Each structure stands twice: as structure tokens, then as C-alpha cells.
Amino acid sequence: MKVKPLADRVVVKALEAESKTAGGIIIPDNAKEKPQEGEIVAVGPGKFEDGKKIEMELKVGDKVLYGKYSGTEITVEGKEYLILRESDVLAKI
User: What UniProt keywords are attached to this protein's entry (predicted)?
Assistant: First the structure.
């Protein structure tokens, strides 16, 4: 990956939203909700607080849940990613 996040930031690749409901109804692309789960593809080195380095809890490959409107969307080599702070991640799956 050409993007290296700084401090306590992570780069997330959003997982695809479901295209079919449990009842079998196909959802068109423009009606799908924004995904809230993804996979970590890059992790920053951590941050310094009160002169001490705080290590990252997340690592590359972790599947995570994050807020619907959190982070900043970027496009790298034609693929869409999301950069967000580690604190914006709600949970590991």
C-alpha cells in the first residue's frame, strides 16, 4: 500500500454491503446503505502522550466496525479506502 497512516490512524477497506435481503430481494447499488465494517490494511506507529509512546491495539488484517460517517474517504490506485483514528473504531469482529 502506498499510503502510510501517521500517529494513531488506520486505513480501512470497507467490506461490500449486502446486495440481497434475507427474503431474497435484490437491493440496487444506489439504495445500499454505507457499510460500517471493514478490514484494516495499514496501521500507523502509535501516538505519544505525556512523553510515552502508546502502541496501537489494531493490526493489519483485523476486521472492525466503525461509525457510519466517521473518517475520511480516499481513493488510491482506483480503490476506495477510509482513514480514521483508532479511537473511531467501535469494535473488532
Answer: Chaperone, Cytoplasm
What is the distance in angstroms between the CA of the first residue and the CA of the last residue of the chain?
A: 23
Residue 7 contacts residue 47 (beta carbons within 8 Å): yes
Q: Is the pLDDT of residue 18 over 70?
A: no
19 contact partners, CB below 8 Å, separation of at least 6: 26, 27, 29, 32
Strands 9-14 and 47-49: unpaired
pTM of the model: 0.80
Domains plus CATH for the chain? 9-16+31-92 (2.30.33.40)
